[in-house]
Every structure is written in structure tokens, then in C-alpha cells.
Design goal:
11 strands; alpha/beta
């Protein structure tokens, strides 16, 4: 593939990724360097080396200035301008550093003129959007820069790192007439504004602007769900069900959007049937992501959760404990496949589900359930946990439970020490050793957490080292869901993690996909 072709492809990938971020949530609308290959990693195309021969210092300076985003920056570089404007392009990269790719991709061959014209505005956006600056530049509604620059900058300061998504979902058809109202919404909602704009009923503004602003004031970021579920009827429905909706939002918080999407105008029936049991689960198990456990009104996972605290209920079934994350930035832990996996465990196990946002809560849950039936004279549990599932977004060395800015991109020991409370990670040896006493001698530990079994020194190996007699299952890469395999008693005999991407790739390559894209994606450490 030639460099020009590769460049076009990389720019396409950047734009496609931006569109994916938007559409996923949408519903309605100096420097000589004699070994350039060490810097370029896999960008060793012949044509690129020709550019290196013509502009060696400038290309290397661009690579060095753009840091970890060097591939995106080279991919978006308007190299047709290098002969006449190489110095300006280098200076631009030194000015915007790792965010330069966004400037290049946004303005293309007119980047010299547009960057000079809008430099002050771009610098304000960078100050506001921080780590999200590249996406903010890429998705900037450039046609508004001349007439609405202050408006766009105000949006950036309100939206912060999600500025790019806010720009992408801004209802452009009403900006000229209602920029003040849109700016006010952004001030109210902040970084979640893009969610509200996703299905904002802009066609109602001429008639109901005050009412729509009132809805945003009352429900904040959760007004996004009202706009999506009730559409053009949102004003009427909200007015007639205001008290019930306010109570619902107050009670269910971050689950509101998903619950409303599932049950729509039947949300009141959902509360009648399940309200009391939900309150008990929040109090007893820390459950706040209620939508994870309801595929329909009749789902009884949470009812079983409370009932299982009775020692005389399911007394002969072995114990299973699921400790789930509270921080779920993409809501993947509410997927139907994950719900079905949990539901399948109830056939053979006395199942408990907790949600936590810190390691102390996770290990406390293990101790609580591990000693539910008391301990013997030596302090050993009378009925230890047979199956322990720990769920959260993950990386090779850690499983995330509570919010941090690093999310699942955390890698260094320094970062793990800094954010240790929000992760189960490779510096929690003492805690895992202590928790081991609550797991049965033939127990199973499942890390439902992407890449925690990735090749090298990983969290799965660490858990196995500190709990040597348990079997540990963990995914070796990012995955979407799991598959449990059971014996005739409903007890887990095997776990396979699955990837929809792997499935599609194998299918494209005419490989066997009868396993659903699961085979070979799970690290299994057995005793």
C-alpha cells in the first residue's frame, strides 16, 4: 500500500472512529536521526522513506512532537504541502503536539490558512478539552467558527474532554436562532451534554423552548432519556407524569436512561412491581445499575439476591458470588449476553450479586458471603464460595471498579499505586491472600475483565499465585461476553470469553465460527 493510499485510509479510519462514537449513542439524528524506523514503528512504507529523504528533519520533528499519536498525525499529514510549508507544519505540530492529527484531519490542505485564522480559538478549545482535544478539533463545526466562535468556545469549557461529541451532536439547524438556549443547556449538563443533544427535539423549540429548557433543568443529563423515549410527545408526557418521573429519576440515577428505554411509558408499572426489591438490593448489595438485571418486568435476579440471604433458602446449592463494577463508561456490563450468563448460574448456585466502586468493598463482599453460614472452631467457613466472578473494565494488570481518569488504560505501577482503591490489581497480594480463605479448595475465580489474561505478567497469574488452589479464567484480549459450560447439576465446568470482532474476522476469513468467536480467547490457570 503506497503512502498516499495509507494516508487516506488512516484519515478515513479517524473519521470513521469519530462517526462510530457519535452513532453508537445516536438514535435520531531538531533533529537529525539516523534510525527513523525506531520512531516510525510499522510506518515503514517506501514512499514515507522518500519523504524522509526529501524532508528528513521536518518529518522526524513532526514524529517527535506528536508523541504517542505519531501514527495518526502522519496519517492525517497533508504531505502535499510539505514542499512549500514544511516549516509551518512542523511548528503546528510543536504547538498542538499529540492533538495535531485533529487539526490536520479537520482542515486538510487548507490547514495553513485555517490554523492561522483560528489559532486563538483552537488554543482556547485545547485548554478546555484537554485529553479530548484531538476529537474536538476533528468534529469542530468549522462553518460556525466565523460567526459563533464564542459559542463554540463556551461549549468546550462546559463539555471538557467530551467536547468533540458535543460538537458532533450539536443541533446545527437551530444554532442561529437558539444559541443562547443551547449554551445554557451545555452549562447545566457539562460533560454529558452530548447525551442530551443526541435526541434533542429541536423541531419543538419554536413552540416549546421554555418547556424543553425546563425539562433539562429538572432532569439534568437524564433528560436525554426522556427526549429519546417520548420524542415529540415529551412535553405533554412530562407535564402529566412529572411527579412520577422526578421520583423515578431521583431513585434510579444512572440506570434511568436504560430503564426508560426498556420500559417506556410502563416505567410506573416497573416501579410498582420491582420498587421495593430494588431498594433492598441497593441497601444490602450496593446495587445501583438496576438495568443490568432486568431484561423484562419479570426478571427475578434481584429478588433471588435478597432471598438467598435466608440460610434456609437454597441451602443445598453451592455458593456463587459476583462482584461487579460501578464504573461502566460504555454500559457494556448491561448487555443481554451478560444478563443471560448471570441468570444461567441460578440453576446450580445460590447466587449473590454485589456492586462496588472500590477494592475494600470487593473484599468485604467476599468475606461477607464466604462466612454467611458461619465459621468452624478454626475460623474456616462452613460454606465457602465455590464460584467467584469479579467484573469490571480491565487491562493486563488491573480490573477497574470505580471511576478514575485512566479508566481501563492504566498500565504503570505508579498509576496503580495512585489509584489502587479503584482497582483490583497486581499490588493487592495481601488482600487476595486474605480472601483466599473464603474460597473453596476446588473453587473457580473468573475475571470478567478485558485483557486481564493477556500474555505476560497479568492479573490472572497474580490471582492464581495468591490463591494457588483455585482455577482462574480470564480473557487474553478485549472481549464482549462470556459462555459458561455446566455439568448435569448446573455447576460450571468451563468458561470461554468471546469477541464479536474475532467472530466477524474469522467469518470473513472463512474460518470455523461454530464457537461464536470464543475459541482461544481465554487464559485458563488450573490446579
Amino acid at each position: 500500500m503506497g503512502f498516499k493510499t495509507r494516508t487516506k485510509q488512516l484519515v478515513y479510519n479517524i473519521l470513521a472512529a469519530g462517526a462510530l462514537l457519535v452513532n453508537s449513542f445516536g438514535c435520531c439524528s531538531g533533529s537529525q536521526y539516523d534510525k527513523p524506523k525506531e520512531l516510525l514503528t510499522d510506518l515503514d512504507d517506501v514512499v514515507l522513506y522518500e519523504l524522509m529523504q526529501e524532508h528528513p528533519n521536518e518529518i522526524v520533528d513532526i514524529i517527535k512532537a506528536s508523541g504517542d499519536s505519531r501514527e495518526q498525525t502522519l496519517g492525517a499529514l497533508p504531505f502535499e504541502l510539505m514542499d512549500e510549508h514544511s516549516d509551518e507544519l512542523v511548528q503546528m505540530t510543536q504547538r498542538y503536539k499529540e492533538h495535531t492529527w485533529g487539526v490536520f484531519a479537520a482542515f486538510g490542505n487548507d490547514v495553513i490558512n485555517q490554523e492561522q485564522k483560528n489559532r486563538s480559538n483552537l488554543e482556547h478549545i485545547r485548554e478546555a478539552a484537554k485529553e479530548g482535544t484531538g476529537w474536538a478539533y476533528l468534529l469542530l463545526p468549522k462553518d460556525l467558527m466565523e460567526t459563533h466562535s464564542d459559542f463554540l468556545i463556551d461549549i468546550a469549557y462546559a463539555s471538557g474532554e467530551t467536547t468533540g461529541l458535543t460538537y458532533a451532536l450539536l443541533p446545527l439547524d437551530i444554532v442561529n436562532e437558539y444559541s443562547e438556549e443551547l449554551g445554557y443547556i451545555t452549562e447545566l449538563i457539562g460533560e454529558d451534554t452530548w447525551k442530551v443533544f443526541t435526541c434533542f427535539p429541536s423541531e419543538l423549540m419554536d413552540t416549546y423552548s421554555d418547556e424543553l429548557i425546563g425539562i433539562v433543568e429538572r432532569y439534568g443529563k437524564h433528560s436525554a432519556a426522556l427526549f429519546e423515549v417520548f420524542g415529540k410527545d415529551v412535553v405533554e408526557i412530562e407535564e402529566t407524569h412529572r411527579q412520577e418521573l422526578e421520583n423515578f429519576v431521583r431513585k434510579y440515577g444512572d440506570s434511568v436512561n436504560s430503564l426508560l428505554l426498556k420500559f417506556g411509558e410502563d416505567f410506573e408499572d416497573f416501579e410498582v412491581y420491582n420498587g421495593e426489591i430494588n431498594e433492598e438490593n441497593q441497601k444490602l448489595f450496593g446495587i445501583t445499575h438496576f438495568h443490568r438485571y432486568y431484561m423484562d418486568q419479570d426478571s427475578d435476579l434481584l429478588a433471588e439476591n435478597v432471598a438467598n440471604l435466608d440460610l434456609d433458602y437454597n441451602p443445598d446449592k453451592p455458593m456463587a458470588l459476583v462482584v461487579m463494577n460501578k464504573n461502566d463508561w460504555n454500559d457494556v456490563f448491561a448487555a443481554q449476553k451478560k444478563y443471560e450468563g448471570l441468570e444461567s448460574l441460578t440453576n446450580g448456585y445460590k447466587l449473590f450479586i454485589f456492586e462496588v466502586d472500590n477494592e475494600e468493598g470487593a473484599f468485604a463482599a467476599i468475606e461477607q458471603i464466604g462466612t454467611l453460614y458461619g465459621v468452624d472452631d478454626e475460623g474456616n467457613p462452613n460454606k465457602p464460595i465455590d464460584l467467584l466472578i469479579l467484573g469490571g473494565h480491565g487491562s493486563q494488570k488491573g480490573l477497574n471498579l470505580g471511576y478514575t481518569s485512566l479508566q481501563d488504560s492504566i498500565e504503570t505501577l505508579e498509576d496503580f499505586r495512585k489509584h489502587d482503591d479503584q482497582y483490583l490489581d497486581i499490588i493487592d497480594g495481601e488482600q487476595f491472600q486474605e480472601a483466599a480463605q473464603y474460597i473453596s479448595q476446588e473453587g473457580i475465580v473468573v475475571l470478567e475483565s478485558c485483557s486481564t489474561g493477556e500474555e505476560g505478567y497479568n492479573l490472572a497469574t497474580f490471582v492464581k499465585f495468591n490463591m494457588p488452589y483455585v482455577d482462574v479464567y480470564a480473557p487474553i484480549m478485549p472481549v464482549n461476553h462470556w459462555e459458561f459450560y455446566f455439568d448435569e447439576l448446573g455447576l460450571v465446568t468451563n468458561v470461554e470469553f468471546c469477541s464479536e470482532e474475532v467472530y466477524m474476522f474469522r467469518k470473513l476469513m472463512h474460518q470455523d465460527v461454530s464457537d461464536g468467536g470464543c475459541n482461544g480467547l481465554t487464559l485458563k490457570l488450573k490446579t
